[in-house]
Amino acid sequence: MPKLKLDSLEINYEISGSGPLLILHHGFGSWGRDWNRGGWLEPLQKHATVMIFDAIGHGLSTRSHEPNDHTVEQRASVVNALADEYGTERYGYVGFSMGGRTGLELAASTPERLKMIAIGGMHLLPATANADRFVRHMKVLRSGRAKSVEKPDGDRPGNDPLALAASHEALLWWQGAGDRLANHKAPTLLFCGEDDAHFANAKESAKIFGFDLAALPITDHDSTFFSSKQAVDSVTAFVAKHLS
User: Fold this and answer.
1) Which tens digits make up the pLDDT trace of 151-203?
2) How far, CA to CA in Å, does 69 sit from each of 53, 141, 173, 221?
3) Cβ within 8 Å of residue 146, ≥6 positions away
4) Beta-bridge partner residues of 19
5) Which residues contact 82 (CB under 8 A, 6 or more apart)?
6) Are strands 188-193 and 3-6 parallel, antiparallel or unpaired?
7) Annotation: CATH topology of 3-126+176-242
8) What's the CA angle centered on 137, arms 136 and 142, to 5 degrees?
């Protein structure tokens, strides 16, 4: 498996399919190959060269305990560096949950690089809107009591609780993207389960910014990624239409 070296970090990635580059960013606690587990890769490969990767602190990438390595801005820099490694300036992007926040940062900070973007299970607000929940999770992850996250899940390696805690800490520093999208022009799809806590804001954001919205009935946060054929079909159709 190839690895991108970025300063002191190593990012594990894989490429499949053919066509314009499409980078997929998974959510918190997952890894790149979970896109295949959710049934995403085969349909997307028909329209794009698909790059999956393990975010910092996840999978086979560097499991840093330093929060500065996990900021949303740093995660966005990793995505652009992966596109540079592939050799393309512009690319398509699909991000879920944590990967959705990274996509919103890309839309705010480097909109010129995006051909299209699809954001799943995420709103445009800063994480401080749910600060208490993240602080509680950080305490548990750093307490030594979070043994369950260290267990492998299928072929996915077990997670490092301290790396996940660093990710949460850094996330609370992010300012959000809602007031920084003036230069974002790429076609944008928000896809979200109607039973996801983020759905109301996703629906409102789609209306305010003129984004496309795929509302998934009887679907919660995790099932949007792991078991929603409607989510896969909606994103695939959007990619087929806009990534060229």
Assistant:
1) 998 889 999 999 999 999 999 999 999 899 999 999 999 999 999 999 999 99
2) 16, 17, 12, 26
3) 140, 161, 164
4) none
5) 4, 11, 13, 23, 51, 53
6) unpaired
7) Rossmann fold (3.40.50)
8) 100
Distance between CA atoms of residues 153 and 65, nearest Å: 22
* CA neighbor of 6 nearest in space, from 98, 107, 89, 74: 74
| Rg (the chain; Cα; Å) | 17
Residue 100 one-letter amino acid = G
Residues 6+ apart with CB under 8 A from 115: 20, 90, 91, 92, 186, 242, 243, 244
Pairing of strands 9-17, 49-53: antiparallel
pTM of whole model > 0.70?
Answer: yes
Name the residue type at position 214. Answer: A
Burial state string for 111-134 with b = 16 or more CB within 10 A and e = fewer than 16: bebbbbbbbbbbbbbbbeeeeeeb
**44/225 Cα distance (integer angstroms):** 14
